[in-house]
Amino acid sequence: MDMTKVQARSGKHNLADLESMREGFDWEEVKKDFSWYKTGKVNAAYEAIDRHAENPDKKDQVALLYSAPDREESVTFQQLSKQSNQTANILKKYGIQKGDRVFLFMPRSPEFYANFFGILKVGAIAGPLFEAFMEQAVRDRLEDSEAAMLITTPDLLGRVPVDELPHLKQIVLVGAENLPEDDYIDYDAEIKEASDEFDIEWVDREDGMLIHYTSGSTGKPKGVYHVHNAMVQHYATGKWVIDFKEDDVYWCTADPGWVTGTSYGIFAPWLNGVTNVIRGGRFTPESWYETLDKNNVTIWYTAPTALRKFVSAGDELVKQYDLSSLRHVLSVGEPLNPEVITWALRVFDLRIHDTWWMTETGAMLIVNLPSMEIRPGSMGRPIPGVEAAIVDNEGNELPPNQMGNLAIKKGWPSMMRAIWKNPGKYESYFINGWYVSGDSAYMDEDGYFWFQGRLDDVINTSGERVGPFEVESKLIEHKAVAEAGVIGKPDPERGEIIKAFITLNPGYEANDSLLEEIRQFVKTGLSAHAAPREIEIKDSIPKTRSGKIMRRLLKSWELGLPTGDTSTLEE
Ligand code: 6R9
């Protein structure tokens, strides 16, 4: 497609506009919008919820507009404030203290959000887990974080290996009809008794708020640790990039088990005091259009994988809905195909604004502001207060149009502050004062960044980050599998699909039912999105002499590309 530039509606000259924001920019100015700037008392739960609940003009505004196939509910800022005071009281009653890790493993529901803020209000650290995780994924995360409490539902409890988690002292069950045993805390009974007043635990801006586990190319998922100070950037990017105005109805489609679902599904909208639509249930183009239509959504933050499905669903479908309230659309998670931008211009008469960031960065870094000209295929330009560059492997800046490591100058407000219990891993992200992202990209002469791919073996399937090691480890737990190597294989709809190469143990014969059994084994042991869509049997898996799986070589074979340097290949 030709790289036609898509001009901003306002007709403002984009570069000048962004440059003028950048000039003399100081994060200190942004901080003045927070109440802690005056009071010195910090807690992100206060800024996001209680501050609005104390404001007579805001308290009765709907904060959370919940819509699921079987349940609809509106919760005002005042109600959410009181409900999270109640959950905070429950946590406190059961001994949760500042700094403890409390994990949430439950579907999106009003109770999820009340508990999330309750955790913050007692000064504890929240760890949201994606509801599709199976036992292994749940165990790894609870074990590594040494979580003291888990808040879950009876349906999901079966995936929690309770007896193997010595640090896990309490389990709260939400929606239990009959409690399985008295070792569990009955949320529904407790909430009836709990006071809706609570003295919030004031924290330091550098105190822990959140842990998100994310995949790298080696080892188990790592706990990315974020602090309350991240709210500064959640708020600012919400205002500049998402363009929040007081009366917006906003819908972020991401689950809070992923970073987009917390930074932009919780903090950005509520720090900016807007009505936040939360949708439960599964994705279908019909149900998502219905959510936009029924709730009169004005701003929509979603992902290319969903947008591509809308494109495939066709133009006739979209005409059945009234989407006239929609005024601003944004995307994250994967490269945004220029075709999708063209489609949105045609069917919604709206541009899609791509944003680039990562679990580790905590908030958006490279974006398309509403006032900017969009160059389809580019992720946009860095926000004010952030310096991005393309660097070589030693951390030296490269000139425009040269491909290299996409890097950010260390020290933006929402940057992760640690990898949980893994200082070596944390340090490894930084070279010569730059945070090196693992993405390859180039920058054009006007400072727009163009994504090229991952530099490591991390897989991005339907916008979800999957570490090959995690899948390989699960595969070799299956009795038939001797060795496994896992790669991402390009796919037009999902970005990448997971492909596994395996060798079989003696006595096992390759056939379709065995392969399906192995696939199911990963699906039910780890999670559906981590299960390989394709499995191929090999006589051996290529490894380096030091025993590392050469995934790059597997990928070259798969794609029929030149195999490059194989000098380290084992005989
Ligand atoms: C927020 C989030 C991060 C990885 C990142 C990159 C890919 C994210 C993108 C994008 C192309 C974009 N990614 N945004 N690729 N264009 N606009 O997605 O966090 O789950 O940690 O994934 O996703 O490869 O490094 P996370």
Automatic annotation (TrEMBL):
<feature type="domain" description="AMP-dependent synthetase/ligase">
    <location>
        <begin position="58"/>
        <end position="419"/>
    </location>
</feature>
<dbReference type="GO" id="GO:0003987">
    <property type="term" value="F:acetate-CoA ligase activity"/>
</dbReference>
<dbReference type="Pfam" id="PF13193">
    <property type="entry name" value="AMP-binding_C"/>
</dbReference>
<keyword id="KW-0007">Acetylation</keyword>
<dbReference type="InterPro" id="IPR042099">
    <property type="entry name" value="ANL_N_sf"/>
</dbReference>
<dbReference type="InterPro" id="IPR025110">
    <property type="entry name" value="AMP-bd_C"/>
</dbReference>
<keyword id="KW-0067">ATP-binding</keyword>
<dbReference type="InterPro" id="IPR020845">
    <property type="entry name" value="AMP-binding_CS"/>
</dbReference>
<keyword id="KW-0436">Ligase</keyword>
<dbReference type="InterPro" id="IPR000873">
    <property type="entry name" value="AMP-dep_synth/lig_dom"/>
</dbReference>
<dbReference type="Pfam" id="PF00501">
    <property type="entry name" value="AMP-binding"/>
</dbReference>
<feature type="domain" description="AMP-binding enzyme C-terminal">
    <location>
        <begin position="470"/>
        <end position="548"/>
    </location>
</feature>
<keyword id="KW-0547">Nucleotide-binding</keyword>
<protein>
    <recommendedName>
        <fullName>acetate--CoA ligase</fullName>
        <ecNumber>6.2.1.1</ecNumber>
    </recommendedName>
</protein>
<dbReference type="InterPro" id="IPR045851">
    <property type="entry name" value="AMP-bd_C_sf"/>
</dbReference>
